[in-house]
């Protein structure tokens, strides 16, 4: 006599591997089908619901704080459309395509200023410019500190909070490693903080002369010489470089804590970590 044995198999889903496999593919599918089926297609990422919700709130907004929410999310939607990125409400998404990243960041910087916290604990309240310096080197300009932060751009991670929470969308920036020759930088002002390496140097505003020597930097930063120089930090370490939030809106999570506790994660790992935090919302 044989006994039938029923085996139950439950698939194990590794979220990290799924994200790694489908990076940017959902955007391409959404953009393709939105164009082919503009009235019938429902987006993979729930981006269509994001836009519909924005339009509904836009018809009924009657308070200053809600008007600010709609103003910021309009900027986000325009930037997402131009960069062909698709993301829904209460979703987080990593973008690895540098072309899309540049389009998205350039668009949002046209319209707003940002609060910014860096992974080495630097903080600025007026990031007003995003710029590409060469193939991989990019910079953020802090207007309130007259300081430039240089980094090797790898990815961005975007989070869109529910509109009725009246919180700021968040953009994390992931940096890649930059190698530097220590034998040629003996006199350079090199920092090591939280195992994050970066160099401080100055640019003379009158003649664009660069100042790298530590003693010369200290001397230039004394007295009336300060206004003649632009302060520049170049970061060499990979990790979650910073996060940007729109100054007009508040933050939903303790993003400083998330940043400082996870600055050595990859962008994909951070995406998975934050997704687990927002599932309950």
From TrEMBL:
Designated name of the protein: Uncharacterized protein
Organism name: Chryseobacterium muglaense
């Amino acid at each position: 006599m044989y006994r039938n044995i029923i085996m139950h198999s439950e698939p194990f889903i590794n979220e990290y591997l799924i994200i790694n496999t489908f990076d940017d593919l959902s955007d391409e599918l959404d953009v393709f089908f939105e164009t082919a089926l503009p009235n019938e297609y429902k987006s993979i990422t729930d981006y269509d619901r994001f836009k519909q919700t924005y339009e509904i709130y836009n018809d009924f907004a009657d308070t200053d704080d809600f008007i600010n929410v709609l103003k910021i999310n309009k900027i986000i939607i325009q930037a997402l459309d131009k960069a062909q990125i698709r993301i829904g409400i209460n979703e987080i998404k990593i973008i690895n395509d540098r072309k899309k990243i540049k389009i998205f960041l350039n668009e949002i910087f046209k319209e707003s200023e940002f609060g910014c916290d860096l992974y080495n604990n630097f903080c600025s309240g007026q990031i007003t410019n995003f710029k590409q310096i060469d193939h991989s080197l990019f910079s953020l300009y802090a207007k309130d500190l007259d300081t430039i932060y240089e980094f090797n751009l790898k990815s961005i991670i975007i989070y869109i909070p529910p509109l009725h929470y009246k919180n700021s969308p968040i953009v994390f920036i992931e940096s890649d490693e930059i190698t530097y020759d220590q034998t040629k930088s003996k006199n350079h002002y090199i920092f090591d903080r939280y195992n994050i390496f970066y160099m401080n140097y100055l640019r003379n505003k009158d003649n664009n002369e660069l100042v790298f020597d530590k003693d010369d930097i200290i001397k230039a930063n004394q007295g009336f010489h300060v206004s003649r120089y632009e302060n520049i930090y170049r970061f060499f370490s990979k990790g979650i470089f910073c996060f940007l939030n729109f100054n007009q809106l508040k933050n939903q999570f303790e993003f400083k804590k998330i940043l400082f506790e996870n600055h050595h994660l990859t962008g994909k790992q951070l995406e998975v970590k934050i997704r687990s935090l927002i599932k309950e919302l």
